């Protein structure tokens, strides 16, 4: 056992941004997907669930959930299927986290190494758990996905909170200066805010 992988979910519809291909939108001159992948540069494999441009500059494995449009839990399962069983930890991340850093990932990994939990995710200042900004024990994430599938009769359409209902996670607070690493861009205003923070 050993190693670290990353599964990045990049298949959302971005309805609040007019259906834009959200992961390809740029912050500080780089696409949000590229910025997320840079935060997990040491992960092997790095799996993107969704579409990527033909000229995408970062080497990644690409897959989609079947059928497409199954939601984040189905997408997580599709991505995890490309992670070898011997890999100990897997980051599960949204593709629209342009302020994510390697340091923020390291905090989650270190927390999980010392906690008897299946995952470690950030808790924001309002007390909400940021499920798609987390690191999981790979075997624990597989087990949680299996429990969700059993409880619901499948993963298609399962909300991301279903993972938290079927797994034990460490809740991590971000205590360092600077923007929160879980800040996601769901609107054009969010994108402008991220751009200001990234300067």
Q: What this model shows, in words?
A:
The chain has 199 residues and is α/β, with parallel strands linked by helices. Helix content is 30%, strand content 24%. The protein contains 6 helices and 9 strands; from the N terminus they run E-E-E-H-E-E-H-E-H-E-E-H-H-E-H. It has helices at 32-39, 72-80, 102-113, 138-152, 161-165, 188-198; strands at residues 2-10, 26-27, 30-31, 46-50, 61-63, 87-94, 119-123, 129-137, 169-172. The strands form 2 sheets. Strands 5-4-1-6-8-7-9 form a 7-stranded mixed sheet, sandwiched between helices. A hairpin with a 2-residue loop joins strand 2 and strand 3 (30-31). It is globular and about 45 Å long. The model has no long low-confidence stretch (mean pLDDT 93).
What labels would you give this structure?
199 residues, alpha/beta, 7-stranded mixed β-sheet, two-stranded antiparallel sheet
């Amino acid at each position: 056992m050993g190693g670290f992988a990353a599964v990045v979910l990049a298949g959302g519809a971005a309805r609040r941004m007019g259906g834009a291909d959200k992961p390809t939108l740029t912050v500080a001159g780089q696409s949000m997907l590229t910025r997320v992948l840079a935060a997990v540069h040491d992960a092997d494999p790095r799996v993107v669930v969704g579409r990527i441009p033909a000229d995408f500059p970062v080497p990644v494995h690409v897959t989609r959930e079947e059928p497409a449009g199954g939601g984040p839990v189905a997408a997580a399962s599709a991505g995890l299927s490309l992670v070898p069983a011997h890999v100990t930890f897997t980051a599960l991340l949204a593709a629209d986290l342009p302020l994510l850093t390697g340091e923020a990932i390291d905090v989650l990994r270190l927390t999980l190494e010392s906690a008897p939990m299946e995952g470690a995710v950030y808790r924001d200042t309002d007390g909400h758990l940021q499920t798609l900004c987390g690191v999981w024990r790979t075997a624990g994430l597989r087990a949680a996905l299996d429990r969700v599938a059993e409880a619901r009769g499948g993963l298609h359409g399962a909300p991301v909170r279903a993972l938290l209902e079927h797994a034990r996670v460490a809740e991590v607070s971000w205590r360092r200066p600077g923007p929160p690493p879980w800040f996601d861009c769901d609107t054009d205003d969010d994108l402008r805010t991220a751009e200001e923070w990234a300067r």
